[in-house]
């Protein structure tokens, strides 16, 4: 009995010594720790999925799209200021929608076609432009000049850029002489002023980041008025011209203008 107890105790001591020796040897994992080849085990024995996550794939796709857009970009960069000049033709009727003795239609031709030229400048904020525009149109019997505030909406498509414009402001008709007014009147005697509203469409082709050429088509309405002429400047006799200019006159006219445009961009 005593001999069996001694043998059992010796066997237990040998097993404990072997276990202690294995725990301290290099390359051996402590009891309860994951074995090599089981990396990333978390509590419960589950490991996170390997490979690229969905967010990483979306980020890579976005980066590829940005690189492609950069290759296809026109290279113009941002634009802050612009200045342009235009020249073309305009057809205008002084009394298209309303005729109330603005001029003597029996002497002055109220609908004419002539040369138009103008210039504009302003600032640009991404898709919007804002600035003043001056335009002068010369006709056979008279001239029209306008000074407008103009808002533009641009649509960048690489080097080609369509746009819409909306404007309005001051308008004046002048450069009359006694030959086309009738009687003893001259340009200083007849003061025709008012305002206009204008809308248009155009397209620019950028030949470089700083220079463009294009075309612009606009339509406008004119709201004009004229005070009566000083009776002392009229003929002493009666006549149609005296009757027209002695009283106040007004009209609502309309016109269309087509111009070629050259612009500088900064």
Please give a structural write-up:
- The chain has a domain at 81-265: Beta Barrel (Porin).
- The protein is elongated and about 90 Å long.
- It starts with a helix and ends with a strand.
- The protein contains four helices and eight strands.
- The model has no long low-confidence stretch (mean pLDDT 82).
- The chain has helices at 2-24, 54-72, 178-181, 240-246; strands spanning 81-100, 111-125, 128-138, 143-154, 160-174, 192-208, 211-226, 249-265.
- Strand 4 and strand 5 form a beta hairpin.
Sum up the structure in keywords.
alpha+beta, Porin, elongated, 266 residues, single chain, 8-stranded antiparallel β-barrel
Summarize the structure.
By secondary structure, the protein is α+β, with helices and mostly antiparallel strands.
What do the pLDDT scores average to?
Answer: 82
Radius of gyration: 43 Å
State the end-to-end CA separation.
Answer: 109 Å
- Say what the CATH topology of the domain at 81-265 is: Porin
Describe the main β-sheet briefly: 8 strands, antiparallel, barrel
Quaternary structure: single chain
Corresponding CATH architecture of the domain at 81-265: Beta Barrel
Q: Beta-strand level of the residues, as a percent range?
A: over 45%
Number of helices: 4
What ranges have pLDDT less than 50 throughout 5 or more consecutive residues? none
Secondary structure: elements and pairs:
Blueprint: H1 2-24, H2 54-72, E1 81-100, E2 111-125, E3 128-138, E4 143-154, E5 160-174, H3 178-181, E6 192-208, E7 211-226, H4 240-246, E8 249-265
Antiparallel strand pairs: 1-2, 1-8, 2-3, 3-4, 4-5, 5-6, 6-7, 7-8
